[in-house]
Design goal:
This protein is mainly alpha-helical. The protein is built from seven helices and no strands. Helix 1 packs antiparallel against helix 2, helix 2 runs antiparallel to helix 3 and helix 3 packs antiparallel against helix 5. The longest helix is centred in the first third of the chain and has 72 residues. It is elongated and about 65 Å long.
Length: about 200
């Protein structure tokens, strides 16, 4: 084999190699933006779901603590049993009127839930704290504190959710084209802030 044939063979090989590398690099580059958008979208969705679940779990724990306080009051003779039953029924109703991420867009739903929840917290705690026996009871005091602390966290959790939902909404606006191509159902989320305005 002559030198010139070897040079031609090497040149052809290198040319094919460079060409393959270029096309692979171009393919990777064209997918990078879409992959990045998809990953960011899924991360934001996860963060949003996590923030919602933390807030919902805290609310469930608060309601459970109020049920336990009512149960402890029923064991005391000083309390009017019919009043406690009525409070228990109202507490069960809270679960039926709780809001979801979709119903969050309706400010009336939030107002109704908050009014019902706040009035129950106020009535149950003031009733429990009016009883000397319950005040001395460590378990009752822990439950009362649990409800109070959960009430104090409500706005913090809602603000945290709104921050992530705002970032999510902005991301959807900026990347609508890519999200459509990637088949992601990017719907904007309602905010607590909007419901309170």
């Amino acid at each position: 084999m002559t030198k010139s044939v070897v040079y031609i063979a090497i040149s052809l090989f290198l040319g094919i190699s460079v060409s393959c590398t270029k096309s692979k690099h171009q393919d990777r580059t064209s997918f990078t933006k879409a992959d990045s958008v998809s990953e960011s979208y899924l991360n934001l969705e996860d963060s949003l779901l996590h923030a919602w679940n933390v807030m919902a779990r805290d609310e469930r724990d608060k309601i459970k603590a109020m049920h336990e306080i009512l149960h402890m009051m029923q064991e005391q003779k000083e309390f009017e049993i019919e009043r406690l039953k009525a409070l228990g029924q109202r507490l069960k109703q809270l679960d039926k009127i709780k809001f979801t991420q979709k119903s969050l867009a309706n400010s009336y739903v939030i107002e109704e839930y908050d009014f019902a929840s706040n009035s129950l917290v106020s009535e149950i705690l003031s009733l429990a704290e009016s009883n000397d026996e319950l005040i001395k009871n460590d378990k009752a005091q822990r439950l009362i504190d649990k409800v109070k602390f959960a009430e104090q966290r409500v706005n913090d959790y809602r603000e945290a959710y709104d921050r992530i939902a705002s970032r999510y909404n902005q991301f959807i606006e900026r990347n609508e084209k890519y999200l459509t191509e990637l088949d992601h159902q990017g719907e904007k989320k309602a905010l607590f802030q909007m419901a309170s305005e």
